[in-house]
Amino acid sequence: MLDPIVAFVTMVFQWIGRAIGLLIGILMWPFLWFGRWYLQKGWILKAGLGAAILLLAALYAYFIYSTQRWTDFDPDYVAKYNFEQRRRSAGEQAALPPQPSPAMATVEAPVTYPTATANTGPSVADAPAAAAAAPSGRSCGRSAIAEVAADLTDFNVNRNAWISSMILYKLGLFGLSWDKTPFLDNKASFQRGIHEAIRRTATELADNLGRVRGTSQIDANLQSARGNAQFDEYTWYVGLNPPGPKTPTPAYYREIVRDLRAFDDRLARCEAVFDARADNLIQYLDRVASALGDTSAILRERSENYDRGFFDTRADDRFWFSYGQLYAYYGLMTASHADFEDVIRERNLDNLWNAMEAQFRSALKIRPWIIVNSSEDGLFATHLATMGFYVLRVRSNLIEVQAVLQR
Questions:
Q1: How many domains is the chain partitioned into structurally?
Q2: Which residue has the higher pLDDT, 41 or 159?
């Protein structure tokens, strides 16, 4: 009685086996054909093609290594700055000791005065500023925002390879964009999320923070950093629009690092401006909140309309771009706390600001191996909705801080 059932099940598995074998044969056929064709050619052609294949294999090995190794990735990277040890806001000049009277100066030997008194001297975090003090003896507080932005860009393009402009990333998987596959694109999305925060911050530094009430002459270093940050993320050494050699994307982004650090060094010597006013902080927070609002909308749209569980190949891109944004803004908001120390203390915002920083850090705890985009009432996890929840919490904290500053 069971024989027909056994025969049917056996037939089904036979057909499945034949289908798998046929699929493997179709996939292997081009390689088998190429192998036979290759063996029939002369040694010169074989040598040339062999070298090309080895080069391609080496490029793929480097590409895979670069996408999977995240050098110096650390959600707690903010702690190394010790911003809480700072004693002055960005651009704030250290007090100079009293100078001797002219009468005393005529009878006493010349005295070399320190750059700051003992009770107002620079903290550990401000030590580079004192070392770089101008010949006049003046020293000013460095910008933590510029420092963190430079370090994040250095992390993106110097300590790691910039994935989005690599030739194999541009070629995709047999012509299909890596962003439309579940493979090898998470780091690229994460880096682009970080750079979105850098681009927005560079614009704020050039247009507002690095100028006196937005009316003084724009700082040359900040203007250069802003321009380089706007450069597209995908340019390789050769392009087609227009055709010809190009300067690759990482070269432009490395200039951001140099410009921001040059600005910070000049600021430490009181040769540049950082306008740490409450209205500038309000505007910067508004820009960040707007960016996170856009990200939240993108996450919601993907979560609601493409809830395909493990099979949503774009869910990982959305997740890691958002993660990169929060990773960067965590450092930049902590740096803003240090740069606008006087404003935040005067408005009694320290506790609220610390709570906001804690929200950023909580969001960075989410690091799943596989991004799942299921419906919110489904059986499996929905990582996009979870990330969207944290993005909205952070944005809510930013808006609350703005409201207090505007009173």
A1: 1
A2: 159
